[in-house]
């Protein structure tokens, strides 16, 4: 662009406006002079032509009136202009004083001709130190002042204003980031606003660093992170997810995987389950599914996701995480197999113990197994948790373990036992507890064995516990033990039958036995046809 420059090289900004203003002033003065000249000529020529028609005083009064009217019009116009100028200056002074930003006015010679007090607060210069000098000392990059001046004015001529940023420099040499807003003044020259943006720059830098840290966390997370469209198309993914599915970068992954369901899930049913939960609940947690890698391999993964909706409830995106759980599932399977082996080994050991106990009392052979079957059935009928039922069955299978310390002659006595003999038999509950109390079972096996002869009213043994002090498992074992014992043969009597057994527990309901346990037991025999296995 060709620039019109003054003698010192500055562009002649505002030349057209100034020319129009000068033309108006010259025109006004010409009209005024013309009016005066006309009035003077009229006083000579018109007087002669109209003297014969009008009296001379009339002509003199008319000329005086015209002159006074023009003079009054000039004075009124000047007064209005003066008032407007004064008002504008007062407004400029107020704005200059209260503005936190630096305001400068520079003339066509690029010299600062006006500044507000904020200049000293921002840059450290007093008005005396800055007026009459160029703005170059306010910048730290030291670029050519003429080049900077031309850049600013090029933009002002094209857009009417200039907006930009630069590195400012305080009087003490410290650099500060500044924002520059410039506009042309109607009388020539430029007004410049300089704003200290140090706080904004620091905030932007902090935000940028925070975003970089967040992006690094997302990209290097131990789980895959994704965002998908309502149509199931992946919109974003981190590096972990890309590598998990066999791609080198997220870009490769997004280009290679088009459909969240068709390209990723090895089992379509799992994808349908995922979408149903997202639609119904808005989220899904730890859904385990088999996913397909780029090379066709399949692995187990855990998916946690949620839907993102707008205020109107419309689905925007689905976002979530995908975690490789192949190693965990393998470990769980290995542990399950180990536990199964341990369970079988434990059952074998218990079988040996039961056989050892029953070998000393052939009349009660199979008693503990049958009691365990009935106790388990009662617990299932009552809705107990699976783990609690497993502990109950374990205790029931060895609940008479303490009888191994009772003389076999007493256990097989073909008559009613004496009080002393019966007291000796009653020690089996405590003896069984003592034998296994140091075994680290996941259930209170020793305490269940100790309490299986306690009764609700405190009439049981060995501690005479009552009500809630007795474990629920022990209450169930007590009912199952008595029902089996009454309904089968004993050394000192023949079997009394299941009807007698059910009658006895019904009579003891609420006093000796827990009502809920009795009701469950009666329901099993009377409604569901429960029967003991063969002896």
Q: How does the major sheet shape up?
A: 5 strands, antiparallel
Radius of gyration: 53 Å
CATH topology of the largest domain: Hypothetical protein af1432
- Number of H- or I-type helical stretches: 19
Highest CATH level, the class of the largest domain:
Mainly Alpha
* Cα shape: elongated
How many domains, as an integer? 4
Distance between the termini: 114 Å
Low-pLDDT regions: 1-22
CATH architecture of the largest domain: Orthogonal Bundle
How helical, in percent, are the residues? 40-55%
SS strand fraction = 5-15%
CATH superfamily of the largest domain: Hypothetical protein af1432
Give the beta-strand count.
Answer: 10
Reading the helices and strands in chain order gives HHEEHHHEEEHEEHHHEEEHHHHHHHHHH
Helix/strand/pairing class, anyone? alpha+beta
In the sheet with the most strands, the strands line up as 2-1-5-4-3
Let me know the average pLDDT. 81
Topology, pairings included?
Layout: H1 15-50, H2 56-98, E1 102-106, E2 112-115, H3 118-123, H4 127-130, H5 145-159, E3 161-169, E4 175-184, E5 190-196, H6 198-219, E6 224-228, E7 234-237, H7 239-244, H8 250-256, H9 268-281, E8 283-292, E9 298-309, E10 315-324, H10 326-359, H11 367-382, H12 386-397, H13 408-411, H14 419-426, H15 428-436, H16 445-451, H17 472-487, H18 498-507, H19 515-526
Antiparallel strand pairs: 1-2, 1-5, 3-4, 4-5, 6-7, 6-10, 8-9, 9-10
Helix pairs in contact: 1-2, 11-12, 11-17, 11-19, 12-16, 15-16, 16-17, 17-18
